[in-house]
Amino acid sequence: MSTKAVGRNEREDVTLQYKFAEGSREERASFNALEAQKELQVSGRLIVEDTFVGKPINVVIRLGSNKPHENPNPAKIVFTGTIVYYDGKQGEQIVNITKEVALPKDGSDIDLELNITEDQYVAYLKRNHVIEFRVLVYSDLDADVDLLLTKKFSFQENEPVISIPENVPEKETGSFKVSFKNPLSIPLTNAEFAVEGSGVIYLQRSPKQTIGPQQTGVATFEYKEGKKLGNRVVKAQISSDQLETIFTFKEVKVV
Length: 255
Prior knowledge:
Immunoglobulin-like
């Protein structure tokens, strides 16, 4: 904090005329006195369970006062979930909830349970993203945030299943299947399977199909005629209008 000096064209530092020196005994005593006036000193934890696509995201906000208190006013909680894309840019906000929570007066913890349903996030599954959850806690009557909790969340993925023997004869021709169960309550449209595996199969793609809600789609593929002996890896994927492309791998042995 400064002002123009009296009688000369210079800056004069007047900080110490308005506050105690930073780190001084007087400054720390003043700060501690302000903190002691707060009825609540809140600590907390944000817990987000591992979740597969199609299931509700279960969230637990665990809060408690750092000391016993007699504050009759509840703490205000603002809980948000925002899409964050692979390049770090923020997208749409899929949830915004405000609640009041009375913290136990003995200083013990309390759990606030929330969930985000499929219909709140399904529109964003096709795009590469995470969900950033935030909790802002206002424990006093002022407008200051007393606690901020954050957590980034990604879904667990249901993978395609490759139904192929572990041992594949070198000169035998034949076919194998790849399947995928739709985890959503809406159809997967333009669902396309693809496989490849050096020395075992050529790159192949299936005809596009629609896989109904909670139904299983299947595609059939052919072995390569001239296979190479030894351990090989088969890669399979499925893409659709509703989900990001999902990959899976399986090791086989050409004998």
